[in-house]
Amino acid sequence: MRNIKLTIEYDGTDYNGWQIQHKDQKRKGGRVKTIQGVLEGALFDLLGERVRLISSSRTDSGVHAENHTANFRSSAKLTSARIKKALNSLTPPDIVIKEAEEVRGDFNSQYDALSKTYRYLICNSEHISPFLRKYAYHFKQPLNFSLMRKEAKALIGRHNFSSFKSAYKGSDGGQRKNSIRTVKRLEIRSKKGLIEIIIEADGFLYNMARNIAGTLIEAGRGRFPSGSARHILKKKDRRLAGPTAPAKGLCLLNVKYA
């Protein structure tokens, strides 16, 4: 069996996240549309066999991606270049296969990932461009950029991020019980009314990136005093952190492998 790795870019606006939801395949009389479901359907049409995509991430409903990686095993003889071209003809325009490549047999997109990088985008101005409304959180109230950067520094390093983990109702084999993660990079950039929160970590808890963004926004608007991020982190209590920021502002930028 060959092992094929895909690098995928998508606009998550009209999707109920990445993962197929086997327990809830129908909603309001129609089939739940997910990125994984669309891709596995396209792969069946192309290869004539059922394949299971192993994903680097489980993005939530409305979250976007520039470089989402996934792999699958197949006995098909098609070249990687042909698979890429054919898949792009079978998927809707809001999903693009940027790369398809054959990788070693034991490669696993999820377990071999060294780190993942997300960007949370905030439009911090009175008006938001129509071209940004699906991809940025429009927050009109002024934000103290310097204070946000100061609070962000407290979250860098290896910590228990229980305070930034939302309750998860899905099945994950118990992996979410461990709340220890290493944030390798947490940068905040501001330019012309746009604020970018860039977070790189060795792994993310459920809604961790969006909860960090929501907490930094609360600090920036003056709801949390200086030093709050460190205090919230140590208390391991989700109720102390800020709200979960809207999904549309989040984008998976990159997944790093050895």
What does this structure look like?
- Helices cover 21% and strands 30% of the residues.
- The strands form two sheets. Strands 1, 4, 5, 6, 7, 8, 9, 10, 11 and 12 form a ten-stranded mixed beta sheet that branches. It has a two-stranded antiparallel sheet with strand order 2-3.
- The protein has helices at residues 35-47, 80-90, 145-153, 208-220, 228-235; strands spanning 2-10, 26-27, 30-31, 54-55, 64-74, 95-103, 115-123, 137-138, 157-160, 180-191, 194-201, 250-256.
- It has 258 residues and is an alpha+beta fold.
- It starts with a strand and ends with a strand.
**Biggest sheet record:** 10 strands, mixed
- Please provide the ordered H/E string of secondary-structure elements: EEEHEEHEEEHEEEHHE
Number of strands: 12
- Percent of residues in beta strands: 25-35%
What structural category do the secondary elements indicate? alpha+beta
How large is the count of helical segments?
5
